[in-house]
């Protein structure tokens, strides 16, 4: 498959998803040399895949009438669920860009080359596993484990893709990865905090 800006049609999108998940080393080599634009990656990759966890979480909460933690049942209102989905999706789109900017900014400190497009390719393709695993959020109480595993696999994809796309010193890969991990954690915390505040305007959550 060629073209880093995947066609939005299902065969092209699914093909690249399977390739990055099942054959990450070979696929990173292909992605490294492919032409790309940030706009094209957003349109063909980020917008459809980042919607998976937001949509599936919303459907799961609505279909199973909430979720249960330690014997306490939480049933969010429809407005709250939709607000959560919209906020998390929008903030994910922003978070991806912010993280790519940070990865690009710190590349020279690890012997790498700055390239905003390459950094963006790295972040969006690495996060594929986490987004695809979001389908398990259709099961609110049991899906968390699978989404966690997807997130961990995304970190693995990030680790092996980092020296390829940012051309960093292989001896510095671990340090570069840990810094990126810290930055991703901070971005995720900020997104979670903003999402929580936005959800507060969505109506009451029934607890019983």
Key attributes of the depicted protein:
8 helices, mainly alpha, 208 residues, 5% strand, disordered C terminus, globular
Structure explained in plain terms:
- With 208 residues, the chain is mainly alpha-helical.
- It has one domain.
- It has helices spanning 10-22, 24-33, 38-63, 78-106, 116-126, 128-133, 143-165, 173-199; strands spanning 67-69, 72-76, 205-207.
- The protein has a 3-stranded antiparallel β-sheet.
- Strand 1 and strand 2 form a beta hairpin.
- Helix 5 packs antiparallel against helix 7.
Summarize this, please?
The chain has helices at residues 10-22, 24-33, 38-63, 78-106, 116-126, 128-133, 143-165, 173-199; strands at 67-69, 72-76, 205-207. It is mainly alpha-helical and 208 residues long. It has one domain (10-207).
Q: Which structural class is indicated by helix and strand composition? A: mainly alpha
| Helix share, percent | 55-70%
Query: Gyration radius, to the nearest Å?
Result: 18 Å
Mean pLDDT metric = 84
The run of helices and strands is HHHEEHHHHHE
How would you sum up the global shape? globular
Instruction: Kindly report how far apart the N and C termini lie.
Output: 51 Å
- Return the domain count: 1
Low-confidence stretches: 6-11, 202-208
- Tell me the β content: 5-15%
Strand order of the largest sheet: 1-2-3
Number of β-strand runs: 3
Q: Which sheet architecture does the biggest sheet show?
A: 3 strands, antiparallel
Count of helical regions: 8
């Amino acid at each position: 498959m060629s073209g880093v800006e995947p066609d939005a049609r299902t065969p092209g999108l699914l093909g690249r998803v399977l390739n990055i998940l099942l054959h990450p080393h070979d696929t990173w080599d292909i992605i490294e040399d492919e032409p790309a634009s940030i706009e094209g990656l957003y349109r063909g990759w980020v917008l459809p895949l980042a919607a998976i966890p937001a949509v599936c979480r919303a459907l799961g909460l609505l279909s199973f009438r909430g979720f249960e933690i330690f014997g306490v049942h939480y049933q969010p209102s429809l407005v709250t669920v939709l607000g959560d989905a919209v906020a998390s999706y929008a903030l994910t789109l922003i978070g991806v860009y912010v993280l790519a900017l940070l990865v690009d900014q710190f590349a020279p400190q690890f012997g790498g080359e700055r390239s905003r497009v390459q950094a963006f390719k790295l972040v969006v393709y690495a996060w594929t596993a986490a987004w695809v695993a979001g389908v398990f959020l259709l099961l609110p109480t049991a899906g968390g484990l699978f989404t966690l595993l997807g997130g961990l696999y995304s970190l693995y994809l990030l680790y092996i893709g980092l020296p390829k796309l940012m051309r960093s010193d292989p001896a510095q890969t671990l340090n570069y990865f840990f810094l990126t991990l810290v930055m991703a954690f901070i971005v995720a915390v900020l997104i979670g905090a903003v999402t929580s505040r936005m959800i507060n305007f969505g109506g009451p959550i029934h607890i019983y």
